[in-house]
Amino acid sequence: MTQRLSHIVGFDDAPFDPADRGDVTVIGAVYSNRRLEGVLSSAVERDGDDATSMLIDMVAKSRFAPHLQAVFLQGIALAGFNVVDCHALHEALQLPVIVVARKRPDLPAIRRALLNHVPNGGHKWGLIEQAGPMVPVGRIFVQHFGISYVDTCDLIKRFAVNGLLPEPLRTAHLIAGGMTGGQSRQRV
Prior knowledge:
Blueprint: E1 7-13, E2 23-32, E3 35-45, H1 51-60, E4 70-74, E5 77-78, E6 82-83, H2 86-93, E7 97-101, H3 107-117, H4 121-131, E8 135-137, E9 140-145, H5 149-159, H6 167-181
Parallel strand pairs: 1-4, 4-7
Antiparallel strand pairs: 1-2, 2-3, 5-6, 7-9, 8-9
């Protein structure tokens, strides 16, 4: 790795009721190496189009912005199908962006859902296609933008100390679940 990245933010959305069409909370956990440095929070529209702009604003306007070196996302979409334009996020923040998923996504099912049931689904499917395929890193799958596969593997390995997911994502998931449901869920 040409530069050892140590200041990372990981984002995950809070659990939500599928029948609720309101905004969904998004939590960012900011890490310096293996130490939690801070928490960011905002919200995006359920199945909306504001995830990319919200993430850019939340990161760029945070007190952590000058030190951040990479962004982790728990999946390419927040709040259902509010799809993140990972190329635009990387370009706007000038930071590597790494999308992490526990399992390979079922792209045909996602495409059907987007094109048949989600407003602006064609555009959102285009963003997913532009992001490219997810590739395995150990037992998880990733997409990486502005960072090599080798460096992505190194970053995952260094930050996944208490399970499969990197700590910034694991922590964001726990906080988001606790804020919404009164307690965090078991699986992280």
